[in-house]
Amino acid sequence: MEELHGLIARAVVLYFALVGVWGVILAIRKAEFPSAFRSALIIGVALGVVQALVGLTLLVTVRPARDSLHYLYGASVILTLPLIASYIVDKKFSRVLAYGLGSLFIAGLAIRAITTGG
Asked: What are the angstrom distances between the C-alpha of 12 and each of 20, 37, 71, 73, 115?
């Protein structure tokens, strides 16, 4: 189970890094918000939720994380995109850029979660 948690963690980092770069490129090209990009964001959040469920299973059955900050980073991975959505709803800001930068931020959060998980 711990190996699965580590594997999904690395997938979250790579996935959100790629989605983030995609969003920044879309913003540079001044592209509209494509439905494929929206779907990629939803898949990413779902991947984060799956990771959290595996992590909760580990917490209950094996042992807690080495550092309690691990749980904060994990929750932040899931909550970042909804927070971005609520912030930019009434702003004149490029949505693809906001979500692209947010995805890169999530990749960083996931890296930090990996380092605190133990």
From this structure: 12, 16, 15, 13, 14
Q: Total domain count for the chain?
A: 1
The dihedral through the CA atoms of 24, 82, 113, 39 has a sign that is negative
Q: How far apart are CA 97 and CA 101, in angstroms?
A: 6
Structure tokens that stand for 16 in this block: 């959100």
Joined together, the tokens standing for residue 61 give 């059955």
Give the helix ranges, DSSP H, for 1-118.
2-28, 35-61, 69-88, 95-117
Q: Is 52 within 8 Å of 6 (Cβ atoms)?
A: no
pTM of the model: 0.93
Domain enclosing residue 108, as ranges: 2-117
Mean pLDDT of 95-109: 97
Tokens 């920044």 correspond to 24
